[in-house]
Structure prediction request, 418 residues.
Amino acid sequence: MSETPFDVTTPDKAIFLLRNSLNLALHLQNSRESVEIRNALNRILSKNIVSHINLPGFNRSTMDGYAIKAEDSFGTTDSLPTYFEVVEEISMGSKPGFELNPGEAAKISTGGMLPESSNAVIMLEYVEQISKTSIEVRKSVAPWENVVRKDEDLKMGKTILTKGHRIRPQDIGILAGIGKLTVEVYKKPKVAIISTGNEIVPVDELPGLGQVRDVNSYTLGARLLETYAIPKYKGIVKDDKYLLESKIKEILQKKEADAILISGGSSVGSRDITLEVLNNLGNPGILVHGVSVKPGKPTIIAVVNDIPIFGLPGHPVSAMVIFEVFIKDLIGWLEGHNVELSFNKEIEAEIDSNIASASGREEYIRVLLYKKEEKYFAKPVLGKSGLISNMVLASGFVKIGLNVEGLDKGTKVKVKLF
Prediction:
C-alpha cells in the first residue's frame, strides 16, 4: 500500500488542538471516587480539604524539660539563676488537672500538654536539680519558647490541600492528624494499548523470519504505571482495517478506556488503515497527522467521541519519545492534575532569601517552589520540626553541605521534590 503524504504539526500546536478537542471538565466531573487515606498515595484530590479542628489542639512541649511561666525566668543568667518549686510531673497523653502559680514548674516530656497558665518550657540542660521539689534555672526563656501552640500546626477552617493536588506521604499524615479517613479523588485514567502489524507476535512466541515480539505493549504499559494510569492490554491486531475498527469500537462501546494508544499504527503501510479507521469512527476524528518531533514524526492524534487516540510509531524509541512529549501530559489532564512538576524528581531553582546554617552538619531545608518569568525560585519554609503542616506546604528540600555556612539569596540550588 502506498504511503499517504502528510504535513507535520509542531508539538505546541498539537497539544493545543488535542486539549481543545476534549471536554475535560465533563470527564473529571464523572470520574470521582472515595478512597481510604491509606490507599490515597499519588491520587489526585477532586475537592479541597479544609481542617475542621485546630492542630495539635493543645499547647504541646517540643522538648524534655519543665513547664513554667516564661515571665518568671526573665533576667535569669548563669550568674543569676532563678529557683522554681516543682509541683507536679505531667503524664504523657493526659491533661494536667492543675495550674501553675508564679515560681512553680512542672516536669514535662516532649509532646506533653502544658498546664493552664504556663507558656514556655525550659530545657533540661539549663536546669539543675536542687531537691525533689526544687530546681535551679540558669537561662531565661521567651513566651511560647519550646512549645507548639494549640493551633500553630493547623487552624480550624484553613484549607490544607487543594483540588488537583497529588497526595504525598506528608499529606496522608496531616489527613490522619485531623481524623479524615477517606478522601474524594479522581479515578485513575485507564488507557488501552493495541499493538498492530503483521510482523508482531506475542512475547511467549518464537519470532519467525521478519517477525518481532510485542515490545511496545510492555514498555508503554510500564510507563503508564509510572504516570499513575492503568494500562489495559488489548492484544495484537494484524494490518487489517476491519479488525482494527472492530477492536477500537469494542473499547469505545464498552467504555473500557479513557484513551487509546495504537502502537505501530502510524508506520508505512499501516498508516493509511489507521487514518481511515479513525476518521470513520466519530467526530472530530484526525487532529494531527505528523508532528515535528524526531524520532516520532509519523504520529497520528485523533479524538473520537471525546476519547483521545494516538497512532504511535512502531519503533520502541519513537513510541517512548512521543509518550514523553504528549501522552504524559494527557494522563495528567485526565486525572485532573497540573502536570508541570508531576513527574520530575529534581528542579533547579534560585533561593529567594538568605538561609543561615551551622557548619559541621548537613542541613535539609524545606522549600516552596514557585515560578516567575519562566524561572523557578525556592522559598524557605521555616518552622518547628514538629509541625507537619510545614511538610505539606513544602514542594521539596534543599541540602546544605557539611562545610557550608548557609546560602545567599540568588544561589542556584537543586530542589529534591517530595
About this structure: DSSP finds eight helices and 25 strands in the chain.
